[in-house]
Amino acid sequence: MEENTSNTSKKGLSKGIIALIVGVIVLLGGTAAAFFINSSSPKATYFLAEKNSLEHVKEYVENRYSDELAWVEKSEEEAIEQNLDIGVTFNDPSSNGLQADPAIEMINNSRLMFNTQTDMEARQFYTNIGVNYNGIELNDIELAVNEGNLTLGLPFLNETLQFHDEDFGSLMYELDPYTFTGNETLNLDSILFDNMYALEEEDLEYVKEEYIMYTYDLLPEDAFESSNEDVEVNGESISAEKVTMHLSEEQTREILTNLFEKMKDDEKLKELVHEQLVNTSYVAGSDMSQLEEEINLILEDYETVFEEAIKEVETFQFNDGIQSALWIADDKVVQRELNIALAPEGDELVSLDINGQQHLTDDQIFFDFEFTADESSSLVLSGDLNSKDGIIKDNIEVSIPDAEMKLYYEGEESVSDNTRTFDRTLGFSEPYTGEGSMVWSGESTYDEDQMNSSNTVTFGTTDMPEVLALDMNIDGSIIDSVTEMDTSNIVDIGAMSSEEISTYFSTDFAEQFQQWIMQLMGGSNFN
């Protein structure tokens, strides 16, 4: 039994080692993207080509969608208002032309309206929700978040409901002491206004300086060689510089061992891992102190994990080490190969091969890559993005040929002044369920401090081309400040006991709702 447990543990560690090694390979590929390397050696040429290729793609996207990105930037720096009007049409495939389900009819004849205002700098959020059913409008469902406090206004209430984030835990504990500890928080302020998953700029710089350039310096210069070779990319013959990287089995072990040793002893890195685990594990309503304890328990083995990884690397199989080649023209990658075969001692080798080509110009991004594992299963990623004189045409496909499966994107757009007209399709096909697609078409205009767009999104299959259709109209503008809700008559839910809450909702709340619904039904026809 102990032997089985030990073997399972070793297999788990081996998978972790493989993941770490693949991560290091990715790190090597992106090394030069963070720093300019002032050298003309084959090693520097290799990584500068990667850097230039990444930067070209980034600039291509930024130039293509400059108006949209500028609006996003404004929304992060200034107060904005957006009005969203959305309608849904559902075609019931089981109706067979007969009378539709009343619930579906109600959905098809209704529209939702949202007036949303945000100020990311002031950390304020407000939305007013309305419903239009057959021309009858129900408005003024208001919700606001300010300094972590949640405020709710309903059209039938004379008072405004308020809930303080710090009261959530104690209230939930009173309602259910077996599930809640009393320390839970909604943490709405951070969820709405912070990017909880992104590293701070200074932390990102730390990782770049301490690990990216460190890894670059570990790579021996004599592992790189350069030669000239013509290649054919997308039907075009290109004179390229071929730079190969061949790390021997021993060199690969040495680099990984040094890197893992550095990670093991790095308290700053351990803190960053802790922070990321907390941020990615947190959900609204969690007990942060309890979550911290769980993460601390996991990280008790932080040093041990790296110590065991270092030991396993000593006997890990790296058949022929790591072999990579880049073909470079105009200081950018036009073709690449990567070959690696690895496994724990005594296990069968696992191979990974990446082969493909790309061509990056001001008007076009073309790529065609094949990822193969164990010389059997493969995944193909290909794309052709074209943009010239305001006309855009894109095709991207991810496929698994052996399984006859593919996921694809097709897009056609035209841009005139600040207005973009578009027709985009995201679809899939596979032999068991057939084909399905989402078609998004519309028009958008971004002009200084305002924007508007009209959108139609349809979902369908081979048998039912339009099962579901959404039409959405959006108008946005810069505003001076976010609307503040009336707080002159507040009911503080968080300050009440569970008994007081129950009494309030069964008396005052219920009576006002009943009066409102009777008036509404008396003056309207909802049939």
Poorly predicted residue ranges = 1-14
Distance between the termini: 68 Å
Instruction: Name the structural class.
Output: alpha+beta
Task: Bin the strand percentage.
Answer: 35-45%
Summed over residues and divided by their number, the pLDDT gives a mean of: 86
Rg over CA atoms = 29 Å
Q: Which term fits the overall shape?
A: globular
The major sheet is characterized as:
20 strands, mixed
Helicity range:
25-40%
Number of E-state strands: 20
- Total of helices: 12
| Number of structural units classed as domains | 2
In short:
By secondary structure, the protein is of the alpha+beta class.
Layout: helices, strands, pairs:
Blueprint: H1 2-30, H2 42-64, H3 66-77, E1 80-90, H4 102-108, E2 110-119, E3 124-133, E4 136-146, E5 149-153, E6 160-164, H5 168-175, H6 188-193, H7 201-218, E7 224-233, E8 236-247, H8 249-264, H9 267-281, H10 288-299, H11 302-315, E9 317-329, E10 332-343, E11 350-360, E12 364-373, E13 377-388, E14 391-400, E15 405-416, E16 419-430, E17 434-447, E18 450-461, E19 468-478, E20 490-492, H12 498-523
Parallel strand pairs: 6-20
Antiparallel strand pairs: 1-2, 1-19, 2-3, 3-4, 4-5, 5-6, 7-8, 8-9, 9-10, 10-11, 11-12, 12-13, 13-14, 14-15, 15-16, 16-17, 17-18, 18-19
Helix pairs in contact: 1-11, 8-11, 9-10
Transmembrane segments: 12-37
Keywords: Membrane, Transmembrane, Transmembrane helix
